[in-house]
Amino acid sequence: MSQYHNDPASVIESDRAHVWHHLAQHKPFETIDPQIIVEGKGMRVWDITGKEHLDAVSGGVWTVNVGYGRTEIADAVRDQLVKMCYFAGAKGTIPGAEFAQRLIEKMPGLDRVYYANSGSEANEKAFKMVRQISHKHYGGKKHTILYRDRDYHGTTIACLSAGGQQERNAQYGPFAPGFVEVPHCLEYRADHPGEGYGERAAQAIEDVILREGPDTIGALCLEPITAGGGIIVPPQGYWERVQEICKKYDILLHIDEVVCGLGRTGTWFGYQQFGIKPDIVTMAKGVASGYAAISCCVTTNEVFEKFKDADDPLGYFRDISTFGGCTAGPVAALENMRIIEEENLCENSAAMGNRLHQNLLDLMNKHECIGEVRGMGLFQGAELVKSRETREPMDEKRVMAVVADCLKNGVIIGASNRSMPGFNNTLLFAPALIATADDIDQITNAVDQALTRVMA
């Protein structure tokens, strides 16, 4: 047991003195205490002061899909670690083989699973696959990777090179060459919304392809629903046209499911909401609900076969993820998948997502500062504006004041922040897939009260 178990002050001071937190400005910690989360059960977490919080963001970054305190996952991981904790991915393991089989059963049309340990790394693998295919099969020319404004694919330099959030990218360049941005499809912010907007938004992608030269484009990397960029569900007609464009120009379609996967939107994967047939799918976060580190880059056999060439010493995929060889990840993922199936959590995500969406629409009727509500399943957003008529975005400070008010009152919600200049104005909700109607109502009640206080 930790020597600090009965000494919270020591834990806080150790954290303050030595831990470099993610996404945090540390100057305030000179005068206020960092928050230490010590326990979780179901939908709730407790900090080191004993205060209880309802977690509406699944661990802060939309990860703990099946909720906290799942002893069956922890037990399975412990048993596997004692038996065989690790072997490099150049060889196989029983958990790796079993989870790959179970995962592919949920993804018709896809065939191969490449293991890594984070969403950023999974996307890096996909980018490397595209580049190697370009060199081996297209003379190195078809190497450009398209990404979309507002989409986010990870935190490494290559992933930031494919990142459509300018404030997240700021000060980290120069970036890797060969990544080109395409416009987004947020109809709420479009100059010409309305009938046919989805097709027009997709046409903007084709315009970029034609400008760059189709023979230079290797892949198009998109989130099925844009996450941190504002919970953006592409409009009707968009995905059908995107797939036509990719097929027309022989461009691989890479779908980033790091956030939307494993039941978040009400189906196993977000792309399945739209009838998309991807060539590459990447995932992390909810794959094991944070009980172990794991990510997957999943491909069709057609992509896989491009790396089979015994006569070429450089023809195979010359990549490794050290911790992609950990067995804890696939074991945790197997238990995570079993729980989602047995407890019907995809269905619950759809049902409770509908309730969350409707509750937010009800708040929109009450609060003029809510300009639009959007999302699917337990993945919802409410964009805040100064004026519905002008759609001028709410100041980021006031948006974060709403988040802070909810936190003060025991509910943890999220918001787009330090991502898109002038447009960090969307409240974000991604509670665990086990959420009940009472949980959903508690979340939206807290938002209701926060908006009343902050916008007064």
Order of helices and strands: HEEEHHHEHEHHEHEHEEEHHHEEHEEEH
Structural class: alpha/beta
Strand order of the largest sheet: 4-10-9-8-7-5-6
| Radius of gyration, taken over Cα atoms and rounded to an integer in Å | 22 Å
Number of strands: 15
Roughly what percent helix? 25-40%
Number of helices: 14
Shape: globular
Separation, N- and C-terminal Cα atoms: 47 Å
Largest sheet: 7 strands, mixed
Unreliable spans are none
Strand content: 5-15%
Mean of the pLDDT scores? 97
Question: Summarize this, please?
Answer:
The protein is of the alpha/beta class and 456 residues long. The chain has helices at 8-18, 58-62, 71-83, 94-105, 119-137, 157-161, 166-169, 197-212, 238-248, 301-305, 328-342, 345-366, 396-408, 437-454; strands at 37-41, 44-47, 52-55, 112-116, 144-148, 179-182, 217-222, 252-256, 280-283, 295-299, 370-375, 380-384, 411-412, 414-415, 426-429.
Features:
alpha/beta; four-stranded mixed sheet; 15 strands; globular
Structural account:
It is a single chain. The protein is of the alpha/beta class and about 450 residues long. The chain contains 14 helices and 15 strands. The chain has helices spanning about 10-20, 60, 70-85, 95-105, 120-135, 155-160, 165-170, 195-210, 240-250, 300-305, 330-340, 345-365, 395-410, 435-455; strands at about 35-40, 45, 50-55, 110-115, 145-150, 180, 215-220, 250-255, 280-285, 295-300, 370-375, 380-385, 410, 415, 425-430. The strands form three sheets. Strands 4-10-9-8-7-5-6 form a seven-stranded mixed β-sheet, with helices on both faces. A four-stranded mixed β-sheet has the order 1-2-3-13. The chain has a four-stranded antiparallel β-sheet with strand order 11-12-15-14, with helices on one face. Helix 3 (about 70-85) runs antiparallel to helix 11 (about 330-340). The longest helix has 22 residues, at about 345-365. The radius of gyration is 22 Å and the shape is globular. The N and C termini lie far apart (about 45 Å). The model has no long low-confidence stretch (mean pLDDT about 95).
